[in-house]
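Board notes (copied after class):
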Amino acid sequence: MGRTSELQALDVLLAEAKNAGTALLLLGDPGVGKTALLEAMAHHARADGLRVLQVVGVESEQELAFSALHQLLYPLFDHLAELPAFQSGVLEQVLSIRDGSTPSRFAISAAALALLQAAARRQPLCVVVDDVHWIDRSSAEVLTFVTRRLSTCRAAFVMASRGGGHGFMDPTGLPVLHIGPLAAPDALQLLDSSHPGLAEPTRRRLLHESEGNPLALVELPGQLTDAQRAGAEELPATLPLGSRLEGVFAERIRQLDSATRFTLLMAALDGERPGNLADIRAAQTAAGEGWNEGQLETTERMGLVRVDHLGEQITFRHPLVRSCVVHMSPGGRRQAAHGALAEILRGEPERRAWHLAHAASAPDEGVAIELTRAAEHAMARGGAAEAATAYRRAADLSQDPAERTRRLDEAAFAAGVAGLLDTAHELASAQTTETLRGAAAAAYVQFHREGDIDAVYRILPQAMAAAPPSTEPKDVDAFDDAFYVLLNTAVWGGRPELWTAVYNELDRVSELARMCFDSVADPARTAHDVRERLDRATATLSPDTPLWRMNWLIYTAMYLDCFTYYDGVWRDAVGHSAYDSLRFGVVARAHEAFMRGEWDKIEAIASQGIADATEHDYNLVHIIFTYGLAMVASGRGDEEALRKHCDTIVAWAQPRRMQLLMTTPNETWARAAVGRGDFEEAYLLTSALTPPGELPPHYPHFSRVFLDLVESAMRTGRTEEARAHVEAGRQARVDTISPHLAIILAGAVALTAPDERAGELYEAALAVPDASLWKYEYARIRLWYGEWLRRRREYKAARVQLSAALELFEQQLKAPLWAQRARDELRAAGVGVGVPDTRAGVRISAQERRIAELAASGLSNKEIGRQLNISPRTAGAHLYRVFPKLGITSRAALRDALGEFDEVSSA
């Protein structure tokens, strides 16, 4: 009643779901009618032939990882066979159908989306999610992921949440429908239809007090006496709206006997799961409270609950009933209910552990142990946030001070894994006893969130020096964890004074940690045998290998540019789900994608990585992914994007004195300068990083500017400087460190060689094993070789090399300035080469076109988002797809490009 416009909006959503997915968030105060709208939508959806899936957030289940996801996906398990085995296995593991190693949040989310897509192919879906604010964090993150990727899934997602907050759900970018109070005429109609015959003064008072809230309009009159409703007796004073509505239910609850109230309390504490009635009945009997089926009829008749006897399920008529039941119950009764539920849940250790924890009124080591096991199980399923909560509560219940400290450390570590850096910092700071793992957790937060190098060095070196030598595995792991943070800080800090503390502890770390140090700290001098050591370490891996140790291997391989070679091997060795949960693996994939010339791939990985880093305050990781985008922009000559990325990096790194990050502008602008042929600028920029003839200590990125320095020196007449730098590479034997460095050095040797030897050296460079894997360097060498052949008037041979270079630059790297260089050389070699018009046959969607037109008119992404009711990030993503379709790299070129596109399209 009074919701015509809202129902029309929901009907439009259902109609759209038959073709493409869409989502909507309903926001409103308790009792305003969100649940009624969801029920109406579900009814319309069934009538329209959609399959309806219903999820209800439950406050008592917020600590159970994936409890809401279970409600959503369990009815769809008959579609599991349509998914790849890996994805079906992830879902079975997450929903506790089978055991396995920790799945990553991305793997869980992608599998959930795939299952929904599989079901939607057979029949469009209508998913209604009530009480979003009570959904557990893990489920909320998966729902956030899914609702942003519904374009290929015929599903209408409608979620309802209280207006004061969304819990763990991130509503950014979702269309929102605000459900306000009923208009005065509609409120009057609802009141009269629900409670006809009210006296006029009573009607006026109820309309005033209800403020258009439908639940209050329906419920409040029922609590009045006949005399009050007839106007013969003064109405009672009422409380403000929130408390008043709970008071309505409270009065009904007070009328129940003790056993019936205990039944409702257990239903409130155990969650509204299918089949919960059997557990509640058993727990009530175990608690000695007695059981009477008639008590359910009473509560149902009073409008407090709904009972599905066939499905053995009891649900509350409104969330406020559930809240009221819990709040009205004394602490002792709540503890007794939790204890009774724990007693009958011995086959479900995670739920049992939480009920035991809530039942405990004092430290209890036995309960702490069970809750610690629940935390470990949550971590194994990828529920790190829930594990952190469980470890924290276990610490509160610990009787042994040493175990309390250990559990707080584990809670801090789990919180860091979950990206809850504020929580990790709080837990690490709460320790009264300084421990090495606690210090490592605190330093980890300071480094990744704040980028505070000085704070890390105030915390870690002292703690590491104070740690007694030990060969116990847990102590070795704790020391390695601390060293991992210290080494990372020294690498990115890039300042000479930072390395003293690293070298002081070098003899105390494991072989894996030492191998990683040799790879990243000063590779030109220490990395020559690391590849063989990495092979040996890989051969010892098994599913029992502690997951965190994999970061050492990933870090090592990344700086040898061989991560892709091991990636699949490591995933198979330790388990796909566990391996994919490692955030550093995503960083390594982005790095390797650039090195292998898979530049479209790095942009996709970096965009996803930045979104994750932003959500979890991993500010350093955000900047590292931005660095990856800057490298692509520099290679493609997109100077507008490059300037934006470099400005972002400098603004963050400069005040924190992160010197390695501060080399980014020189490195990337030099790459861009070489691409456009400004070799003087490129030489000045690269020689400031690595003076000719020197490979500076503790500068692991020397290889990224090696060829740019050599080429720019040669092109500006600085032949001796170029040859000195090549000789430094030879003396350092950098070609024995990795295959990538082998082709870099071989190309530089050929470029600087005397004319009579250059041909054979170019051939040798191109013959380096797997040389073509490194597309950027390989294309450059073929370009140089073609130029050399063309100058010698060996035009036929030159055309072969130049054509290959052009294809790589134009089709694979999409580097227009480099492609133009190759094209110019081909013309000089007697080949007519035009610029392909890639716009012919390209389609731009209506949404892309609208966003492009708004951007061309001068609107920012934020302004576009506000006008089209989309997020600024979505607007930017559309523009990013439009630019290559129009053959441009900046917004300034949009207006002309759109006109030209129209001409091409109509031709």
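Comment from the instructor: Strands lie at 22-28, 51-56, 125-130, 155-162, 176-178, 305-308, 313-316. The chain is about 65% helix and 5% strand.
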